[in-house]
Design brief:
CATH class of the largest domain in chain A: Alpha Beta
Largest sheet of chain A: 7 strands, mixed
Number of domains of chain B: 1
Distance between the termini of chain A: 71 Å
CATH architecture of chain B: 2-Layer Sandwich
Number of strands of chain B: 11
Number of strands of chain A: 28
Radius of gyration of chain A: 26 Å
Shape of chain A: globular
Largest sheet of chain B: 4 strands, mixed
Structural class of chain B: alpha+beta
Helix content of chain B: 10-25%
CATH architecture of the largest domain in chain A: 3-Layer(aba) Sandwich
Oligomer: heterodimer
Strand order of the largest sheet of chain B: 8-1-10-9
CATH superfamily of the largest domain in chain A: Dimethylsulfoxide Reductase, domain 2
Structural class of chain A: alpha/beta
Chain lengths: 749, 265
C-alpha cells in the first residue's frame, strides 16, 4: 500500500524533541528544547553544560545514566545517582554509548538490497518507499503467522506497543537472547514461585556463595551487585568484611575477587549443591531450624560428600567447609548462573543451588533473597515474564515454519545462533531495524535504521528489580544525529515505525496515542494518579517533567513483606550432564565466557569496548583461548600461538594464552568477536566461539546448553604478538616481594 | 615529611584513596577517564607496540597456580607526588607542582624529551608516539574542557583538573563551600567506580556546617595509623604520593603477607 506524502508527514512530521534537565529535586516550570548545533536557543550559554537523565540498555537491565550535553552534543555519560539500580555508578558499556551515538559507520537512511543477500550492495531509499514496500508485503501475506518479529527481550512500554502489534496482526513474536536465561527463570519460578527475578541483597550479606554467577561483571544486574559488594566488603559495618566463595569451571571476574575459588568438574555443580544440602540437614538442621525437611535426606543421602567425590573432584573436607561457612554465618546467600545453568542439566543445577537459600532461611530477609513486588498499575500487555519468553527452542521452530516476513530488531541471530542461516534462505522478505551493520543486518533485504538510544524515548522495568517497584524513563538527550538528512531519510524510532505500519494497514493498536512519546505520557498519567512514589507533583504535566528529570519513578515504600513460597519441592535425582564429543578425541571442556566489554557480541562495534582490556588476561581486540600453563607446556603451545579449536560442529582459530588459573581439563574462550559482517571495528576480527558449540538443549527446559561442548586443540605453527596491555616479559607478572599489592589477613581499617 | 619535599601552601590539597580490597578490576574507571580526557583510541597496533595510553590502568598480578591461583588487581594512576621524581628532570619545566598539591603537565611547553616518564617509578606517564586521530563523527564526543594533545607530548592523569577548576571557580565566585564528595568535582574515574573503591577529596577540607573533615582525609588518617590498612605505593622511594592505598584483605591466608609493613609517606 503506497503511503501518501501527506499521511507520511502526519505520521512522522514535526516531532519536537523535548527534554527535561536532570535535577535531583525540584520540578522545572517548563520543558526545555535541546537544539542541534546550528540552531541555538537564545538562553543557551556557550561553554556551559546541561545534564539529562535517561537509560542505558544492558543485557538484562538498563542502568540509569545522566548525559552531559554541551551545545547540542553529548559529551560524557555518568551514572544517575538517583536511579535505584545503579545509584550513580556506571560501567564500560554505559560509558561507551557515546561512541555508538557518533559512530562513523551508523546507517543514516533506509536501504534496500541490490545484488545477492549478504553481498553488501545497498541503495538508499526514502522512508516512504521502504514502508510502502513492507506494507505491501504485509497486505499480501498468505498467513498472518508468516509475519515474524525477533526482538531483544522487551519490557515496559515497548513491550506494550509490540504486544499490541503482534496480537492485532496475529503475527509471531520471539524474544531473543544469545545467552539465554531460561533456566534461571525456571529455577526462580520453581523454587521461589515467582515470575520476577528477586533482588539479591549482597549489601547486607556476610557470606556469598556463587555457583558460576559472574555477578560483579556480566550476570543479570552487575552494577547493582557491585554497589552491594562495596557494602559487603566494608569492614566498619556491623557484620564486618563479608566472605565471597565462587564455585565454577572458569575463573570469572567474580571468581578472581572471591576469597576462594573452587573448581569442580563441569556439570557437577548441582551435585555439589545437593551435597552441601545434605551436610546442612545432617549436621546443622536444628541450628538452621530445618528439622522439618529431614525427610529430604532420603534422596540427598546419595549426594553425601564422600559419595560425590568422584563426580565433583572435591574432597569431603571442602564440602564440609562450605556447609559450615553457610551455616555459621548470620546472613548467607547463594547464587547460581553462567555455565552452571548452561549444561544439559542446567535447570536442575540451578534449582538445587537456589534451594539452598530455602534451607538457609534467607527468603525475604536482609542479606538474602529479596522478592520484587508487582507493579502497581495494570500492566496487561506488558512484558511477558514467563520462563520461556526467550527460549531458543522457539528459534528452532522457525526452521520448520513458513516465514514470509522477518522483522529483526535488537537481535543478531546469525551471530548468536549456529544454524540460523538456514531460516533465512526460506524467508522472502527480511527487514532489519539495526542502526549499524552487523551479521544479521547484512542478510536483510531492507534496513530501517532506528534511532540510537540516546536519541530515543523509552522506559524500562528492571528485572531483577531493586526490591521495590521501579520504572526507568528514557528521553532523547540530543536531536537525532541524522536529522539533517531530512524527514524522508535519517533514522526513526522503532516503536513509531511499528505504529506507523499499523496505521498504514488501517489496524488500530488501541494505544490511544499518536506516537510512542504519547504512549509513555499516557502511562505516566496513570502513575500520577497513584499519588505515591518518588515524584510529587500537582498535575500530570509537572509529574511528567519530574519523571524525566529524575530518570524514572519508583516507590521505596512498596516492598514485599509476605511472599510465601508454600511447600518447597524436595530434591530430585539429578541427571548427569551430557557433553558433546568423544572424550578421547575432544579432551577438553569448552567454556565460552562473556567479557564485561563485548558481552554477547553486541559491544564489538565500539572502539572503547574493544580497547578495554579483559581484567584478568589484559587482552584486547582479539579472540584468545585460555589454556592451563602446564598443559600448554606439555603440548608445546606458547603465548601468541595461533591454535585451532575443534568441536564436532566446527573449528575456529584463536590466540593461545597460557593461563595459571584454569584447569588442565578446560579451555576457555571469550564470546564477542568473529563477526562475519559489521562495521570497521568489529569486522575481520577474531573468531566466533558460538559457531562451534553443540546445539544440545537442556533436557527439562529446552534452553540452549551452550556449555556442553568438548573440544580439541592443535597448533597451526603460526605465532603473532598478542594485543594485550600487560608486560612484555615472558614471565608471569607476580608481585613477589609485595611491593605493589600489600595484603593483610586481619580486619582493620 | 622529609626536608626535600615540596611544600604546598594552597588552601586545598587534593588527594585520593584507593581501596584495593573493593576494586573488582572492572575497568569502568579506565573508560570513564578516556571519555572525559580525550584520550586517543587505543588501537590493536598500539597495544602490540606497548604504546597504549591509559591514564588510569588496572594492573593484574598473579599469585600461585591452579588450583590455588589468586588474582590481584590494583588501579594505578598518577600519584601526584609531593616529592615527584618527574618534576626536576624536565628540561623545560613542563611539569611542576601546583599550589593545590597537583602534579601539573603543561602540554604546550612539553618538547617530548621523555625524561619524566623515565624517572617515574609508577610508570603512569604516557607519551604520544603517534598523532591522535578520530573519525570525524567521533570528534563530536570530545570534551571541550580538555586539550587534545598532539604527537610528541607527554600526558598523564590530572585528577581531572578541568573539573577541579570549573567547580572551585564557580563555588569561589558564589562564595559557597564546595562540598566533599560533590560529583561535579570528583574525577571521572571516581564517579564511575561501581564499588566506591576510589575516593577523592581535599585533605584540608573542613565542612563549614558540620566541621567534618573530608572522607579522603579520614581514610588516610585512619588507615595510616597503627592497625590501619593504608600504605603508600613504593613509599620507601620517598616520592611522597598523594594517593593512599588500602591493603587487600587476604582472608584465605592465616598469615600476614610477604613484603612487610606499610611504609609511611
Amino acid at each position: 500500500m503506497k503511503i501518501s506524502r501527506r499521511r507520511f508527514l502526519k505520521l512522522f512530521g514535526g516531532s519536537v524533541t523535548a527534554a527535561a534537565i536532570f535535577q535531583a529535586c525540584g520540578i522545572p516550570e517548563k520543558e526545555l528544547i535541546v537544539e542541534a548545533p546550528l540552531e541555538m536557543p537564545e538562553d543557551m550559554v556557550s561553554g556551559t553544560d546541561n545534564w539529562y537523565a535517561t537509560l542505558s540498555p544492558g543485557e538484562s537491565v538498563s542502568s540509569g545514566i545522566v548525559v552531559r550535553v554541551m551545545e547540542g552534543r553529548a559529551k560524557k555519560i555518568e551514572g544517575n545517582p538517583d536511579y535505584p539500580i545503579n545509584q550513580g555508578k556506571h560501567n564500560v558499556v554505559a560509558e561507551s554509548g557515546l561512541q555508538g551515538l557518533y559512530h562513523p559507520d551508523r546507517i543514516s537512511s533506509p536501504r534496500i538490497r541490490r545484488g545477492d543477500r549478504g553481498e553488501g550492495k545497498w541503495e538508499e531509499i526514502s522512508w516512504t518507499d521502504a514502508l510502502s514496500r513492507i506494507s505491501e508485503s504485509i497486505t499480501n501475506l498468505k498467513k498472518s503467522s508468516g509475519l515474524v518479529l525477533i526482538t531483544d527481550p522487551l519490557t515496559s512500554h515497548l513491550s506494550l506497543v509490540i504486544n499490541q502489534f503482534v496480537s492485532k496482526f496475529k503475527a509471531k513474536h520471539i524474544q531473543y537472547e544469545v545467552i539465554e536465561d531460561t533456566n534461571l527463570r525456571w529455577a526462580v519460578k520453581n523454587v521461589f514461585k515467582q515470575d520476577r527475578i528477586p533482588d539479591f541483597d549482597i549489601d547486607n550479606s556476610d557470606y556469598v556463595l556463587s555457583f558460576g554467577a559472574d555477578f560483579l561483571n556480566t550476570w543479570k544486574s552487575p552494577l547493582r551487585y557491585s554497589r552491594g559488594y562495596s557494602n559487603f566488603r566494608e569492614q566498619s559495618i556491623g557484620h564486618g568484611r563479608g566472605t565471597l566463595v565462587y564455585v565454577g569451571s572458569h575463573l570469572s571476574l567474580t571468581g578472581a575477587n572471591a576469597d576462594k575459588w573452587i573448581y569442580v568438574n563441569p556439570g557437577s555443580e548441582g551435585i555439589l549443591a545437593y551435597s552441601i544440602s545434605y551436610v546442612l540437614l545432617d549436621k546443622y538442621a536444628s541450628e538452621l531450624n530445618i528439622s522439618d525437611k529431614k525427610d529430604w535426606l532420603k534422596v540427598l543421602s546419595q549426594y553425601s560428600p564422600s559419595k560425590v567425590k568422584e563426580f565433583t573432584g572435591l574432597p569431603e573436607s571442602q564440602v564440609e567447609e562450605l556447609a559450615h561457612g553457610l551455616a555459621k554465618h548470620k546472613n548467607p546467600l547463594v547464587l547460581g548462573g553462567g555455565t552452571v545453568g548452561a549444561y544439559t542439566n542446567g535447570m536442575q543445577n540451578l534449582e538445587a543451588i537456589y534451594t539452598l537459600n530455602v534451607l538457609l532461611g534467607n527468603l525475604g530477609k536482609k542479606g538474602g533473597v529479596v522478592f520484587n513486588p508487582i507493579l502497581p498499575i495494570a500492566m496487561d500487555g506488558f512484558s511477558d515474564l514467563s520462563p520461556d519468553l526467550a527460549n531458543s527452542s522457539r528459534i528452532d521452530e522457525l526452521k520448520s515454519g513458513d516465514l514470509e516476513i522477518l522483522l529483526l530488531r535488537g537481535a543478531n541471530p546469525i551471530y548468536g545462533t549456529p544454524g540460523f542461516k538456514s531460516v533465512l534462505s526460506k524467508t522472502p522478505l527480511i527487514v532489519s531495524f539495526s542502526g549499524i551493520m552487523d551479521d544479521s543486518a547484512m542478510m536483510a533485504d531492507i534496513i530501517l535504521p532506528e534511532n540510537h538510544y540516546l536519541e530515543e524515548w523509552g522506559s524500562d522495568i528492571p528485572n531483577p528489580g531493586p526490591g521495590y517497584p521501579t520504572i526507568g524513563f528514557q528521553q532523547p538527550v540530543v536531536r537525532p544525529v541524522f536529522e539533517k538528512r531530512g524527514i524522508h531519510l535519517g533514522t526513526k524510532s522503532f516503536p513509531d515505525v511499528m505504529m506507523a505500519l499499523a496505521e498504514i494497514q488501517n489496524i488500530d493498536l488501541e494505544l490511544n496515542a499518536s506516537n510512542y512519546e504519547n504512549v509513555l505520557r499516557n502511562m505516566t498519567d496513570e502513575l500520577f494518579k497513584l499519588n505515591r512514589g518518588s515524584i510529587k507533583a500537582k498535575n500530570p504535566r509537572d509529574f511528567w517533567n519530574g519523571v524525566l528529570q529524575r530518570g524514572g519513578w519508583w516507590d521505596v515504600d512498596d516492598k514485599v513483606s509476605n511472599h510465601k513460597i508454600g511447600s518447597t519441592n524436595g530434591p530430585r535425582e539429578l541427571t548427569p550432564a551430557k557433553f558433546l564429543g568423544d572424550k578421547n578425541i575432544y579432551p577438553f571442556h569448552l567454556v565460552p565466557f562473556e567479557l564485561g566489554s563485548l558481552t554477547d557480541g553486541r559491544g564489538a562495534n565500539l572502539p572503547w569496548l574493544q580497547a578495554t582490556p579483559d581484567p584478568i588476561t589484559t587482552v584486547t581486540w582479539s579472540t584468545w583461548v585460555e589454556i592451563n600453563l602446564n598443559k600448554a607446556k606439555e603440548l608445546g603451545i606458547k603465548e601468541g600461538d595461533i591454535v585451532k579449536i575443534t568441536s564436532e560442529y566446527g573449528e575456529i582459530e584463536a590466540f593461545a594464552y597460557p593461563h595459571p588459573a584454569i584447569s588442565p581439563d578446560v579451555l576457555a574462550i571469550p564470546i564477542g568477536q568473529g563477526h562475519e559482517s559489521g562495521d570497521r571495528y568489529s569486522s575481520d576480527r577474531g573468531s566466533n566461539v558460538l559457531s562451534i558449540l553443540a546445539t544440545d538443549k537442556d533436557k527439562d527446559s529446552g534452553a540452549w546448553a551452550w556449555a556442553s561442548t568438548r573440544v580439541s586443540i592443535s597448533s597451526t605453527g603460526n605465532n603473532l604478538p598478542l594485543s594485550k596491555f600487560e608486560n612484555t616479559a615472558p614471565d608471569l607478572s607476580v608481585d613477589a616481594h609485595g611491593h605493589i599489592i600489600k595484603t593483610t589477613s586481619g580486619e582493620s581499617k | 615529611m622529609s626536608d626535600n619535599s615540596v611544600k604546598t601552601s594552597g588552601k586545598r590539597k587534593w588527594s585520593m584513596a584507593v581501596d584495593i580490597d573493593k576494586c573488582t578490576g572492572c575497568q569502568a574507571c579506565v573508560v570513564a577517564c578516556q571519555s572525559e580526557n580525550n584520550i586517543p583510541i587505543n588501537t590493536e597496533d598500539l597495544f602490540k607496540q606497548r604504546r597504549a595510553i591509559q591514564w588510569i590502568r588496572i594492573e593484574r598480578y598473579w599469585e600461585g597456580e591452579f588450583p590455588n591461583a589468586k588474582v590481584r588487581f590494583i588501579p594505578l594512576l598518577c600519584q601526584h607526588c609531593d616529592n615527584a621524581p618527574c618534576e626536576p628532570v624536565c628540561p623545560v619545566y613542563a611539569t611542576y607542582h601546583n599550589q593545590e598539591g597537583l602534579n601539573v603537565q603543561v602540554y604546550n611547553r612539553c618538547i617530548g624529551s621523555r625524561l619524566c616518564v623515565n624517572n617515574c617509578p609508577y610508570h603512569i606517564r604516557f607519551f604520544n608516539f603517534w598523532e591522535p586521530s578520530w573519525p570525524d563523527s567521533l570528534k563530536n564526543q570530545l570534551n571541550p574542557d580538555v586539550t587534545v594533545r598532539s604527537r610528541g607530548i607527554m600526558e598523564k592523569c590530572t585528577f581531572c583538573i578541568q573539573r577541579i577548576r570549573r567547580t572551585t571557580r564557580e563555588s569561589d565566585k558564589n562564595n559557597q563551600q564546595l562540598k566533599d564528595g560533590d560529583r561535579r568535582l570528583n574525577p571521572a574515574c571516581v564517579n564511575a567506580c561501581p564499588t566506591d573503591a576510589l575516593v577523592f577529596g581535599d585533605l584540608n577540607y573542613v565542612d563549614l556546617d558540620t566541621g567534618e573533615k573530608s572522607k579522603v582525609a579520614k581514610l588516610k588518617e585512619e588507615s595510616l595509623s597503627k592497625n590501619g590498612r593504608g600504605y603508600k605505593l613504593m613509599g620507601e622511594l620517598g616520592t611522597e604520593p598523594n594517593v593512599t592505598y588500602l591493603k587487600k584483605v587476604d582472608a584465605d591466608s592465616g598469615h600476614s603477607s610477604h613484603g612487610g609493613d606499610s611504609s609511611h609517606g
